[in-house]
Design goal:
Chain lengths: ~375, ~260
């Protein structure tokens, strides 16, 4: 019986496959350790604190709760005072009122009502920092939001329930929805520049990094450098093709968004071109660095995912990174993808120009240069 | 020392002098001397792990010897890389070219590295008998056709020295014979020197003027086929009389193992 088991070919095959798997440290790391690290990181970011924090812009009122309300005060002010909201003044002098609705099962919801003028509110909504603007007219609360944005819909429902429970707003006539469909304030306006930026990252990672690693693994790099081919030409050709493709891909995406959603570029076109080019350069440098050493495509896969996945999740491509904990925001803002996406949004929907985007352009260019030089120092052609 | 007067005066295209190379605990090459004159076809014959590929990689310039010197056309690799890359042709045991380039596009790409025009590409295409596959993507070629393409690419620059690392490993007998035909034609038409690593004794016997038998990083025997086969008569372990003696018999006599082990 023992002999039958010890000679069983299926067991031997399983054993051989298992040994092959665990004896490849790269596969082991990217297959087991990396997902655990990712879940740990994202778990800390998302589950450590269940509270949902939503910022609400309140326009048309400079003093939210500084004075005792009178009968003629706004309904929002009366509501906040009645609920003993915490009044805070930040370093910029902005006044905000924080109101937390406790809920053991669903987690706490904290509303931050922030007084600001209409223009400020529009900038924040374009950046995705807020999704709803409140103001009042003749005792009715007006909710300004993109009706196609599910987050904004949820905020609207929560707020109306909150106000009606408190008896501040009663009846349908006191709550008026004002759809925001102006170009630049819709979710699609926020999404498209982010998708264009993400396209640059993904395309560079797979088109440059993976292509190099695959060619190294197939000995094609070694075969090519056995000729008088200039090594710089090889890299220039690879990067040039990728950058051109990125311009075409982004152009087609914009064309589609323009035709289907009437998206426009409100800022300086030259600034957008320069920023886009700097983003391409940054990701080309990062791609060269990532692919500088390994000849194993499995490890290459892992490296590319390790770099691109966190940025894809954190850099505010699909939703604002202001949803992440406060302590992480300043780090997230330094990621190349965040710089590129934020810069493109500022040009496309906020009307920024060369001067406003000079800093992200410079940082992206320097990032690309540093990674390119470091990558070339350790680059393996064989 | 970047040149060798000895190489030039003796018409040697490759001169390997007491070369050693180790990888961690493995001594891959242990004090090998090799002198290859112009036009000679040399086989490095030996089982896997004999040190053939490491020796070729050092001649090719991608590995540095730990000890000893290597001269190619009287020059070392240091400071002469561009010149030497122009006079050497190379085909690796297994190279995957860009899958979705055609045969012609692949030839043109590599020709561009040497600033070679279309005419030479046409000649090579004819030499490797892939005219009919000119427009076929590399991914759609058979193993033998891909290896012929690899050899064709190595011949684009009409090299003084051709290095072929196990060019027929894994190919069926027909494909192997097609490769041999190309190399025989090359010998007739040019003064190219060839170093070919193989563990097929038949390949060494068919193609090469001079055979170097390697094992464990050392040269066991070297000489012409006739001289090597003649040595078997002097060895204690003789092959069965009724069969033609081969280099494998010599290798068994020297090591107690077959070449293919």
């Amino acid at each position: 019986m023992n002999e039958r088991i010890s000679n069983n070919q299926l067991l031997h095959l399983i054993s051989a496959n298992f040994k092959e798997l665990i004896r490849e440290p790269g596969v082991l790391f990217w297959g087991i350790v990396f997902p655990i690290l990712m879940s740990l990181g994202l778990g800390i970011a998302f589950t450590g604190k269940k509270d949902v924090v939503t910022t609400i812009a309140v326009t048309g009122q400079n003093r939210l709760v500084y004075h005792q309300p009178t009968d003629s005060s706004s309904v929002i002010r009366r509501f906040l005072v009645a609920n003993r909201s915490l009044v805070e003044k930040d370093k910029n002098g902005c006044i905000s009122c924080k109101l937390t609705i406790p809920d053991d099962k669903l987690g706490n919801t904290t509303f931050i009502f922030q007084a600001m003028d209409w223009q400020q509110a529009m900038v924040l909504i374009k950046r995705g920092n807020i999704n709803i603007i409140l103001d009042e007219e003749n005792g009715a609360v007006h909710y300004h939001f993109d009706p196609m944005n599910p987050d904004a819909q949820l905020t609207y429902l929560k707020l109306t329930r909150l106000f009606s429970t408190a008896g501040v707003v009663t009846g349908r006539t006191n709550a008026v929805i004002k759809p925001l469909t102006v170009s630049g304030t819709r979710y699609i306006d926020f999404l498209i520049p982010g998708l264009m930026a993400m396209g640059v990252m993904m395309s560079s990672m797979w088109g440059v990094s993976y292509a190099i690693i695959e060619r190294r693994s197939k000995k094609l790099l070694r075969r090519m450098v056995a000729t008088p081919m200039k090594r710089s030409n090889f890299l220039i050709a690879l990067i040039t093709v990728r950058v051109l493709m990125n311009f075409v891909e982004a152009g087609l995406l914009f064309l589609f968004a323009w035709l289907a959603f009437h998206i426009t570029i409100q800022g300086n076109l030259a600034a957008l071109f320069v920023l886009f080019f700097a983003g391409n350069f940054a990701f080309a440098g990062i791609s060269i660095f990532i692919s500088s050493h390994t000849a194993k495509t499995e490890i290459g896969n892992g490296l590319i995912n390790a770099v691109s996945m966190p940025m894809m999740v954190l850099s505010g491509i699909f939703f604002s990174y202001h949803n992440f904990p406060e302590w992480s925001i300043s780090t997230i803002q330094k990621f190349p993808l965040t710089l590129l996406a934020d810069g493109m949004r500022s040009i496309m929907i906020e009307g920024a120009g060369i001067a406003e985007t000079a800093l992200p352009v410079a940082i992206l260019a320097v990032t690309g240069l540093i990674f390119f030089v470091a990558g070339m120092k350790i680059f393996r052609w064989h | 020392m970047n040149t060798s007067a000895n190489s030039m005066s003796n018409n040697l295209v490759i001169e390997v002098r007491k070369v050693h190379k180790s990888f961690k605990t493995v001594q891959a090459v242990r004090g090998i001397d090799l002198h290859i004159p112009q036009g000679q076809f040399v086989a490095l014959l030996g089982p896997n792990g004999a040190g053939k590929t490491t020796l070729v990689e050092m001649i090719e310039g991608i590995q540095q010897p730990d000890k000893g010197d290597i001269f190619i056309m009287g020059k070392t690799w240091k400071g002469n890389e561009d010149y030497l890359r122009r006079i050497i042709g190379l085909s690796l045991q297994e190279t995957h070219f860009i899958d979705k380039l055609s045969v012609w596009e692949t030839l043109r790409l590599f020709a561009s590295f040497f600033a070679i025009g279309k005419e030479r590409c046409e000649e090579v295409l004819q030499l490797i008998a892939l005219e009919e596959k000119r427009r076929a993507w590399v991914v759609n070629l058979s193993g033998g056709q891909r290896q012929r393409l690899a050899i064709g690419i190595s011949l684009l620059n009409k090299p003084n020295i051709l290095l072929l690392d196990e060019p027929t490993t894994g190919l069926d007998p027909n494909a192997r014979r097609e490769i041999w035909a190309i190399l025989r034609k090359l010998k007739e038409q040019s003064q190219t020197s060839l170093i070919l690593t193989t563990h097929y004794m038949e390949e060494a016997e068919q193609l090469c003027d001079y055979i170097v038998i390697l094992d464990h990083g050392k040269i066991l025997k070297e000489g012409t086929l006739t001289a090597l086969l003649g040595e078997i008569q002097d060895l204690p372990l003789k092959p069965v009389e009724t069969r033609r003696t081969t280099l494998d018999d010599l290798f068994i006599s020297l090591t107690g193992r077959h070449l293919n082990e």
